[in-house]
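Support request, priority: normal
Reporter: lab tech (M.K.)
Component: structure prediction queue

Hi team, I submitted a job for NEDD8-activating enzyme E1 regulatory subunit from Tagetes erecta yesterday, and the status page still shows it as pending. I've pasted the exact input below so you can check whether something in the sequence is tripping the parser. The sequence length should be 492 residues. Please let me know if I need to resubmit or if it's stuck on your end.
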Amino acid sequence: MAEAKTKYDRQLRIWGEQGQSALEKASICLLNCGPTGSETLKNLVLAGIGSITVVDVSKVVNQDLGNNFMVHHSSLGHPKAKCVCAFLQELNDAVKAKFIEEHPLTLIETNPSFFSQFTLVIATQLVEDSMVKLDRICRDANVMLVFARSYGLTGFVRISVKELNDAVKAKFIEEHALTLIETNPSFFSQFTLVIATQLVEDSMVKLDRICRDANVMLVFARSYGLTGFVRISVKEHAVIESKPDHFLDDLRLNNPWPELKKLITEEWAKSHDGNLPSTREEKKEFKELIREKMVEADEDNYREAVEASFKVFASQGISSDLKRILDDTCAEVESGASDIWVMVAALKEFIANEGGGEASLEGSIPDMTSSTEYKLIEEEFNPPVLPELQKYLTDEEYSVAVGFYILLRAVDRFSANYNTFPGQFDGAMDEDISRLKTTAVGLLSDLGCNGSTLTEDLINEMCRYGAAELHAVAAYIGGVASQEVIKITSAR
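Reply from support: The job had stalled in the queue. We restarted it manually and it finished. Here are the results:
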C-alpha cells in the first residue's frame, strides 16, 4: 500500500485505505467505448480501479477522431476497443485492461452469464429495450449496473443496483415522531444517532434533552422553501484520527544523539546564538550550508536533507493544542470516563514519565482538539439572546441570513397559533403575510431585539414558500446532514 499512498494521496484522504482497497479489487465491464464510455473509464482508471474489460465491435473511423481522446489518427481502421484499451492502460499501468471485439447486444441476447464475472457493468449508448434486458441479467447476477447516454446537448445517467447495502438492517415504524417524543422517550436510547427532520422548535428542544440524557448523538435537518438548516447536538465529539496536510515525522531533531550534534544543525546554531533558522533568508542560507558539504553534486542523502530541512525549522515538543487537552480537568479520569479521556490520561502519564517531556512516537493523537463545553439547543431558543443577534440584524452582510433564521423560527410559532404554515393556502396569502410579520416582531421582542424588524421582501418570500419541501434544497440540506453524520459516527 506504500506506493498507493503516494500515488492516490489526495483521494485516500477522502475515502481512506478501505475505500481504495475496494476500488482496487473491483472488476469493471464497459459496453461501447465511444466518448461517453471512454471518459467514464478514464476517471476510474486514474482512480486506480482493479481491472477493466472493454466490449465494442466497431472500428475507429474519422468521426471518432473528433470526439474521442482515447483514439489517435494512427488508430483508423483498427478495433476501437483495442485502441481505447491501450490508451487507458497508459494512464495507469497498475490497472489490468483487456478488450473483447463483440457487439454488446450479442452478449446480452446470447451469453447473459458473461456479465456475472464483473463487480459492475457500465453500459453506454444502449437503447431502451437492451437496457431493460441487461438490467434483468445484472440483477439476477447481483452485479451493479450503470447506464450512461449522451444525445446532442442532453443525456442521462441511471444506476441500477439490487440493494444499496444488503448488509444494512432496515425496519420501519408507523408512528408519529411527536408521539414517541412525548410518550416513549426511552425509545431513542437504543440508537447510536438520531436524525430528526422537519421538526418544529418545541419538539427539537424536547428531543435534544432526551438524546443528551441517553448519550445519543442527534442531528436536526430542515428545509423550508429556498432555505434550511442543519444542527448537530452531541455532548462531546472527539476526533480520534486526523489527517494533516503536512505530516511531521517524529525525528526528534531538537534532541538528537550526541554524535549527530556535530553535524549541520549544531554548526548553524553555534554561529547564530544557538537559534535555528527562522526567516526566509536564513532558511535559504541553511540549505546552502547543507549543499556545501556535498562531495558529489547528486548525493542522494544530501539532496534529501535539503528537501527535508523544513523539519528542523518546525517547532518541537508538545503543541499548544495537545497541552491544553492534557491540562483539561477531564484528563483526571475517574470510573465511567469516556475512552478518549482515558487515552489522554495515559498519554499525560507517559509524557511525565517514560517520555521525558515528549509525546510518544507515531501512534499518538496528532492535532487533536477538543472541548468539554457544550450547549443545549434550548439555550439558543431562550432569552437572554446572544449579543451578536442584534448586531447581525443590522449588518448588511449577514442581515438576510439572520432574517431567514428568525423567520424559520417565526413560522413554527405561526403554525402553533394558526394550525397551518404561512402561505399554504393561496386565498389567505395577504392575511398570512400580516400575521407572519406580527409573529416575527413578537419573536424579536422576546429575544430582546425590541424595535427590530425584518424586510417586507423576506416576509413575503417566506409566505411564498408555503412550507414547500423543494427537492433541490432538500437534497442540499440532506447532503450536509449526511456529511455531518459521517463525521460524527466515524470520528473524522
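DSSP finds 21 helices and nine strands in the chain. The beta strands are 27-31, 51-55, 96-100, 120-124, 144-151, 154-160, 193-197, 217-224, 227-233. Let us know if anything else looks off. Ticket resolved.
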